[in-house]
Design a protein that fits this description.
This protein is of the alpha/beta class and 486 residues long. 36% of the residues lie in helices and 14% in strands. Among the domains are: 224 residues, Alpha-Beta Complex (Amidase signature (AS) enzymes), CATH 3.90.1300.10; 68 residues, no CATH class. Helix 10 crosses helix 13. The protein binds glutamine (GLN). The site of glutamine has 14 residues, from strand 4.
Length: 486
């Protein structure tokens, strides 16, 4: 990047990013600005470069960190009152990997408290404003990170995606946002929402930046038993391409001589791209449907084939998600009791009162709603009717994707049924807010990767985004193929 050849110093880059962050203060993007820490790190990198020492691939690149990643710099609050005052003794694996390559965190970004939400309005710190229309939501839960990249404050930002929290805000703000395959990037040191669907990912301005970040952050981690061996850097799973074209599936090791259509930055050709019939109806905004049609035409003109898919099980995804995820949320949030982390309501001598008051005051209404639903669906008598049924629906959804990817290489769908909506429009109607996630959650249940690709603007100037979906471990192919949509 620019600083290695001394065109600009790391200190200059970091100071510019901090100045921009302050300039856009009224968008409420950051929960913490890392002024001292970031400038200190930038100076260290500049000193290394001056001495001719080797620096990392991200040396001096300012980035924004979603405030549910643990690191000792600033408080990690997950935008929740109950974590106020909590400074982490540990550093998330993803953060450690980025910083080992010289990336510099200039601030922590706002989110829906504990990542529960689709608009960033559930944050204890208030909503983040959309980068293109200040009367509209940033999307969520990673709203702050999406807007930090969209307003060009930083080169990239981290996010977490449990049911759409990277892809939907990316589409609302016109940037790329990747939810990788489940297990691709370590979740160690990231505040857990729902452990079986949580994924770590990024917001960037280009597919190439996404590729670079993925190559740095992915890989197995002994601190997260669900991480996969590092397929991103060592092998390309092109089995799905073979499948769709009737060839026998094969795992190929990435090497310089490979002649795959997508690897080694060769232009992809002749891919089969599925579109889901059920998503083309009146409940989806007309301009989004139009954008999808235009992209399909573009792909056809580049020699790709568009295939209509029926995926009937996906209609169960939202219901299954809003049972499985609250169940896991209820378990994960039980650790916040006022004893170990952050905020404590009072020093009541009665332990139960201390828990009670801390949790009542510390959680946001949406957090409490999920704790209630989660405990309900797990309770004896209701477990079979709700949780078990949802788990079975999840299996159907996994199979539905496997079937689809035996026919196509990728699937292209809207990210959400609408572009960014108005602040206040849905926040008091939980079901309307949950419906935002109708197109994003099935990927998390199935563990497959999804990449938000910018797809133009509405007549009123709001960004539109589409979601490119691939089979598990096809992350690199997705990123490459996104270039075909330009
Ligand atoms: N909007 C979804 C929810 O509220 C997804 C959240 C997320 O991905 N963190 O559950």
């Amino acid at each position: 990047m620019k600083i290695a050849n001394k065109k600009v110093t790391a200190e200059r880059l970091v100071k510019d990013a901090l100045a921009k962050a302050k300039h856009f203060a009224d968008y409420n993007i950051f929960t913490f600005l890392n002024e001292e820490g970031a400038i200190k790190k930038a100076r260290e990198i500049d000193a290394k470069i001056a001495k001719g020492e080797k620096v990392g691939k991200l040396a001096g690149v300012p980035y924004a960190l979603k405030d549910n990643f643990l690191s000792p710099e600033g408080e990690t609050t997950a935008s929740a009152h109950i974590l106020q005052g909590f400074t982490s003794p540990v550093t998330a694996t993803a953060v450690a990997k980025l910083e080992a390559e010289g990336a510099i965190m200039i601030g922590r970004t706002n989110l829906d408290a504990f990542a529960h939400g689709s608009s960033t309005e559930n944050s204890y710190f208030g909503p983040t404003l959309n980068a293109f229309d200040r009367e509209r939501v940033a999307g969520g839960s990673s709203g702050g990170s999406a807007v930090a990249v969209a307003l060009d404050i930083v080169e990239f930002a981290t996010g977490t995606d449990t049911g759409g929290s990277i892809r939907q805000p990316a589409s609302f703000n016109g940037v790329y946002g990747l939810k990788p395959t489940y297990g691709c990037i370590s979740r160690y040191g990231v505040v857990a929402m729902a452990s079986s669907t949580d994924c770590i990912g990024f917001f960037t301005k280009t597919p190439d930046d996404m590729d670079l970040l993925m190559s740095i952050a992915s890989g197995q981690d002994s601190k997260d038993m669900t991480t996969l061996p590092d397929y991103y850097n060592t092998e390309l799973e092109r089995s799905h391409l073979g499948h769709a074209q009737g060839r026998s599936p094969k795992l190929t090791v990435l090497d310089e001589t490979s002649s795959s259509s997508i690897s080694n930055n060769h232009k992809a050709s002749g891919c089969r791209v599925g579109i889901i019939k059920d998503f083309d109806n009146d409940s989806v905004d007309a301009e989004i449907r139009q954008a999808l049609k235009e992209k399909c035409e573009l792909l056809k003109s580049k020699g790709h084939e568009i295939v209509e898919l029926e995926m009937p099980s996906l209609k169960y995804a939202l219901s299954a998600y809003y049972i499985i995820v609250p169940a896991e949320v209820a378990s994960n949030l039980s650790r916040y009791d006022g004893i170990r982390y952050g905020f404590r309501s009072d020093d009541s001598a009665v332990l139960d009162d201390l828990y009670d008051h801390t949790r009542s005051e510390g959680f946001m209404p949406e957090n409490k709603r999920r704790i209630m639903i989660g405990n309900f669906v797990l309770s004896s008598g209701f477990y079979d009717a709700y949780f078990l049924k949802a788990a079975k629906a999840r299996t159907l959804i996994i199979k539905e994707y496997e079937k689809a990817f035996s026919k196509v290489d990728f699937i292209l769908t809207p990210v959400a049924p609408n572009p960014a909506f108005k602040l206040g429009e849905k926040v008091n109607d939980p079901v309307a807010m949950y419906l935002e996630d109708v197109m994003s959650v099935s990927l998390n249940l199935a563990g497959v990767p999804g990449l938000t690709v910018p797809a133009g603007k509405t007549k009123t100037g709001l960004p539109l985004g589409l979601q490119l979906v691939g089979p598990r471990r096809s992350d690199k192919n997705l990123i490459e193929f996104a270039k075909e949509l330009k």
